[in-house]
What we know:
Rossmann fold, five-stranded parallel beta sheet, 10 helices, 5 strands
Amino acid sequence: MKWLVGLGMLLLAAAGVFVFSITRDSDPASIDPNPSSSFRIVALGDSYISGEGAEHFMRGTDEPEPARQNLCRRASTAYPYLIAKQLDASLKFVACSGARTGDVIDSGQYIHTPPGTFGRTSQLAVLEHIRDPDVVLISIGGNDAGFSKIGFTCVVPFAKNDCRQHAGDWLRHLDERVYPAMERTFRRVRRAAPGVPVFALTYPIPIGPELCQVAGLEVGEMRFLRVRFVPQLNRLVRRATEQAGIGLIDLSEALSGYRFCEQPRRTRAINFVKFGHTIGSGVDIHQPSSFVRSTFHPNERGHEMMKRKVLPVIAAVRARALASAQP
């Protein structure tokens, strides 16, 4: 029981962080930076595209009450938003933190979300009602793969011994469950946007090639994440795009030079363990994942770096769209 006492002390010590996270200011940006633009970008998927690693989130997308009203956590520092601003494009920002493939194609994540904020219905249902989209971006598969559980098991000291003991199960899950779900999702998105360029995104590898030890994360665990798990997930994303007939934008090395083992904490493009309220109104020590947020998620610097990889592709699509619109 000593670990429970220690955990309780940790939570008490971090209480100020939790209060800050609950009461912090919202991101004042509009959900669409250019709603009147004739070029429309649609962003679907999970926290890696919604902007989870940010410090502030758009109004209505970081509301835990009542009954987890909406925790999609969209930010104007996310790379789809940055691209839309730079290209003077409209953005239908549907992506939602925590989304799995089923949330894209089958059901909404937050049924109590007020009208006017995405999250009540499946992301596919939103896409089907968007008039004349010009390009669709989708980042999905990480939550199906168990990113949050794996990150928690590998990183948080009181949650684990050596997380590699689960490696075989995690890798089999990728092949047997995650890959079919991604392929099915990409096919559904393809059918929902006929003739529209659709691009899936791979996930950034969070660790540099020269492995090191970070608090709570051993060198062997880092090697597993860098060399085996994330690359295998990305290989399956690539294969699923090929089978579904959509495009791929590779972000696996997007954070190169600013990852773990490459930069000190303050200059990294990716967060380590970051405490913050994510579920309900109280802190539940039996559900630690409810108060650890943004862990292993790109921060503002990271999204700027990912933008540089994605922007040329979207700019090329926009140039073709403008050319085809000319008489």
